[in-house]
From TrEMBL:
Residues 1-20 form the signal peptide. It comes from Oryctes borbonicus. InterPro entries: CUB_dom (IPR000859), Non-NMDA_GluR_Accessory (IPR053207), Sperma_CUB_dom_sf (IPR035914). Residues 25-153, 170-291, 323-445, 461-579 form the CUB domain. The keyword Isomerase does not apply. It comes from the Eukaryota. GO terms for cellular component: plasma membrane. Keywords: Disulfide bond, Signal. SUPFAM superfamilies: Spermadhesin, CUB domain (SSF49854). The keyword Signal applies. This is CUB domain-containing protein. SMART domains: CUB (SM00042).
């Protein structure tokens, strides 16, 4: 087999068959693509099934000093007999080598087996060496092995632009006053685009001038797959609105994503990257810019040979309408917008854009106070096509994505952005004498529209409900009674006194998703726990549910709401009561409920009458008449 196994490979690139690191290994060295963009590597006899009892074949890729190696699997079919790939057939990866030398003591990163869908298809080395070690077990199978491409890349393409802080492993500082630091640039997780190291903690300090703010764009984030709360992630990116991690948290990133924008409210921004998992991801690549407070939000895509950034926004023509508005929280934290000529009729054949730009943890919230759009159809219709309408857009994966359309005369529920930016667009095709349009208030809020509890600063969205403050109250999802925003995680922490528990009653519950409310079903969810960590006693809740109760086992209880960036729901509205552990809880019939109207927005909360029944512990010898 060794004679004709790789004859076709020899015609494509330079391969050296040499002595293996230890007896029984065959070593294949790939050091050039012969002027082509990519080279090719294959498993033995590919695309025919590989033979059993392949003890060890080393695919060794060796680049120049300032190069890294990218490999991409095009086909992958390695028989999987164990979930962890430790036995049977597997491909072992060595990604962090200064050269192509490995031995039995060299640490490896991971094992691959299964099909193409089971593995990361693109891998990078962190240095000029990369080794794949292939083994097959004793059993014969029809597995065809693997085929892929490789190329050599300049490692300097992934150089962090700031100044490394002396005496640290991966801390950097960026100052607009430092002539060594560019006005804008790039920064990366350690070893990017290869996997980051285990057990590291890196910080990135950004300091602008007093008339500047910091703009960050996370182009790619790849930490861990899944939808586990950032509260329980071993690898996490934390962004703080100031110079240290004691400042208010803007955003926590702990999964995978693209095109995530961050804007500081002042001249300082602090980013902390912590990695403690056993299986590191690829990490992140990001761009920074020191932006004048007088500028609009900026895109990092630039003309070649041009130092001037382009405006980042929705796809609009260069000639803007006279009714277009850009509303920044730097100018005002709240205000009012209306259609042209309001309360008179708005003009026909008009397009108006209202662009909102917040900073820090601010979200844009729109509350409509009057809404009367011309409709050509009888009655109310949810279909706003071919009608005068207002559309709402938020930024998703680097583009403005429509989240809803509003038409007719029904007052829309409040709208909230998924980040610091939101766009409303008026499309007037008709317009008649009695179509007065809309009037709405806008505000840049940091509390996500949650007005109960005490907000704490160490998390982007977290609220505390203490028995010492109030033994009974309510809480709800962000922006309730409007739909909750996408890509949002909020925590509700309940703290009772000793020998107390908390009882939660969910009066309304509509969270987008289907059981088991996880990544596979692309579901948003609400999670319950007696601890800060995950509690196996409680299952996740999602979907449209009838009223239900949840009760804690101890004085502390956590409720976590998490939404993804796909769809949204109406959210939830719930009440809580702290009880002594010997107490039980019943709720009076709904006729005993009283409706409380709260604030000018018209948000409705249901405060149920509660009857607490004291159940004494009864000694066996006691008798009752």
């Amino acid at each position: 087999m060794e004679v004709n196994l790789f004859l076709f490979v020899l015609e494509l690139y330079f391969v050296i068959v040499g002595h293996a690191v230890h007896p029984g290994c065959e070593c294949l060295i790939f050091s050039t693509t012969h002027g082509k963009e990519k080279g090719i590597f294959n498993s033995p006899d590919f695309p025919k099934p590989y033979s059993p009892n392949v003890d060890c074949i080393l695919y060794t890729f060796v680049g120049k000093r300032n190069e890294i190696i990218q490999i991409e699997f095009v086909d992958f079919d390695v028989r999987k007999t164990h979930l962890d790939c430790l036995k049977g057939d597997y491909l072992k990866l060595f990604l962090h080598l200064d050269d192509g030398q490995v031995n039995e003591y060299t640490p490896w990163e991971t094992l691959l087996c299964g099909g193409l869908a089971d593995i990361p298809t693109v891998l990078y080395s962190s240095g000029p060496g990369l080794v794949l070690e292939f083994h097959s077990g004793m059993r014969t199978s029809n597995a065809t092995g693997f085929s892929g491409t490789f190329r050599f890349m300049d490692r300097r393409l992934f150089k962090t632009g700031g100044q490394k802080i002396s005496g640290t492993a991966c801390d950097y500082q960026f100052s607009s006053a430092d002539y060594m630091v560019a006005y804008y640039g790039n920064f990366y997780s350690p070893r990017y685009p290869s996997s980051y190291p285990k057990n590291i903690k890196c910080s990135y300090h950004f300091k602008a001038s007093n008339r500047e703010r910091v703009h960050i764009l996370f182009e790619e984030i790849s930490l861990q797959k899944g939808d586990i709360s950032c509260l329980n992630r071993a690898d996490i990116i934390r962004i703080y609105d100031g110079s240290t991690n004691s400042e208010p948290a803007i955003k926590f990133l702990c999964n995978e994503g693209t095109e995530m924008e961050i804007f500081s409210t002042g001249p300082n921004l602090f980013i902390e990257f912590v990695a403690n998992s056993d299986w590191p991801g690829q990490g992140f690549k990001a761009k920074y810019q020191f932006q004048s407070v007088d500028d609009n939000f900026i895109d990092y895509e630039r003309q070649e040979h041009s130092g001037k950034p382009k405006i980042l926004g929705a796809n609009v023509s260069e000639t803007r309408s006279s009714c277009d508005l850009v509303l920044s929280s730097d100018v005002a934290k709240n205000g009012t917008i209306t259609t042209p000529n309001y309360p008179g009729p708005y003009p026909p054949r008009t397009t108006c854009r209202y662009e909102f730009e917040g900073r820090g943890r601010e979200r844009v919230r729109i509350v409509f106070q009057d809404f009367y759009m011309h409709t050509s159809r009888r009655g109310e219709s949810k279909d706003c096509d071919s009608q005068d309408s207002v559309m709402a857009f938020v930024l998703v994966d680097g583009r403005m994505d429509k989240i809803d359309s509003y038409c007719g005369t029904t007052l829309p529920k409040p709208v909230m952005s998924n980040g610091p930016r939101l766009l409303l667009e008026l499309q007037s095709m008709f317009g008649v004498q009695y179509s007065r349009g809309f009037r709405a208030s806008y505000s840049f809020v940091e509390n996500y529209g949650i007005i109960s509890g005490s907000q704490i600063q160490k998390y982007p969205c977290a609220f505390v409900y203490s028995s010492n403050e109030s033994r009974i109250g309510y809480f709800h999802s962000p922006n309730y009674p409007g739909p909750y925003p996408r890509d949002t995680e909020c925590h509700y922490f309940f703290y009772g006194n000793e020998n107390e528990k908390v009882h939660l009653h969910f009066h309304f519950f509509d969270i987008e998703g289907v059981k088991p409310c996880n990544t596979i079903s692309a579901s948003d969810y609400v999670e319950f726990s007696n601890f800060m960590s995950i509690d196996s006693r409680y299952t996740r809740h999602c979907g449209h549910l009838k009223e239900f109760h949840i009760e804690s086992d101890r004085k502390f209880f956590r409720v976590t709401f998490r939404s993804n960036d796909r769809l949204d729901g109406a959210g939830f509205n719930a009440s809580y009561i702290f009880l002594d552990k010997i107490q039980s809880y019943t709720v009076a019939e709904s006729k005993a409920a009283r409706i409380l109207r709260r604030d000018s927005v018209g948000v409705t909360y249901v405060a149920l009458s509660v009857i607490v029944i004291f159940s004494r512990l009864i000694e066996p010898q006691w008798c009752w008449d």
